[in-house]
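In response to the reviewer comment on reproducibility (Comment 2.3), we provide here a single inverse folding case reported in full, input and output, so that an independent group could reproduce the run without further information from us. The structure tokens appear first.
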């Protein structure tokens, strides 16, 4: 996978009869960045991600990817959704190969690719024949990541993918995504409302205001690896965490409650 950059210029999304969800937002995401987007519910985090994915058409402004305007979904942008969206009628292998079949990848190559992706997300090859309902929540999210990676996207877009997981599984999934990012150099945009999750995984953190704008962007100075349970030992941890909470505090009281 080759990393790619994203440019967002004057991005505005307004729904009929409602205030703007995003309001003239400007943001550049350099190739290879692991960007966490923080903010309360209703501030436009998911709407921003959906604009990058091509699922939402802006009211004004635009998103460009590698210099080309985003006008719809594309194979170069893989998406891991907030909710489990695996096809219940298909096997794990069938879920992962869905995009490969659409791309007319031959059957033998699909089997090889499925095995590679299962290994990449830490699952055994025999999981390919199992049904989604047989898997734990963490395993299902691993399959969701594998499916998003099937076509070798240059950007991975993740919308609060670990919010429903228990604490230990969540840490394991964070480790997985950090490892994937370090090995591939893929650009990642990761939506979260969890300050500690953002600090642990991201190379850069954006805090969104309640008005759908960017309150501030901060580079993450903490070195990798950032081991769960020991991250607070870094000297820069407490100042960074305090700054993020200071930025979020006014947005929590002013959140408009529009779609996130």
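Designed residues, in position order:
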């Amino acid at each position: 996978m080759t990393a790619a950059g994203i440019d967002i210029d004057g991005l505005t999304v307004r729904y009929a009869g409602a205030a703007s969800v995003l309001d003239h937002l400007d943001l550049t995401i350099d190739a290879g960045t692991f960007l966490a987007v923080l903010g309360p519910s209703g501030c436009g985090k998911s709407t921003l991600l959906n604009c990058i994915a091509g699922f939402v058409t802006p009211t004004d402004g635009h998103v460009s990817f590698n210099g080309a305007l985003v006008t719809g979904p594309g194979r170069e942008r893989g998406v891991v959704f907030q909710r489990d969206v695996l096809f219940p009628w298909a096997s794990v292998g069938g879920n992962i190969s869905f995009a490969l079949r659409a791309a007319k990848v031959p059957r033998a190559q699909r089997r090889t690719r499925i095995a590679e992706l299962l290994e990449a997300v830490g699952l055994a090859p025999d999981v390919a024949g199992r049904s989604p309902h047989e898997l734990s929540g963490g395993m299902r999210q691993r399959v969701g990541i594998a499916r998003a990676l099937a076509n070798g996207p240059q950007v991975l877009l993740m919308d609060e993918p670990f919010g429903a997981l228990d604490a230990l599984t969540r840490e394991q999934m964070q480790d997985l995504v950090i490892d994937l990012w370090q090995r591939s150099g893929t650009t990642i945009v990761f939506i979260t409302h969890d300050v500690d999750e953002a600090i642990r995984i991201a190379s850069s953190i954006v805090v969104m205001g309640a008005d759908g704008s960017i309150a501030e962007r901060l580079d993450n100075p903490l070195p990798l690896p950032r081991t769960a349970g020991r991250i607070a030992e870094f000297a820069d941890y407490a100042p960074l965490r305090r700054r993020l909470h200071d930025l979020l505090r006014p947005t929590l009281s002013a959140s408009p409650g529009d779609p996130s």
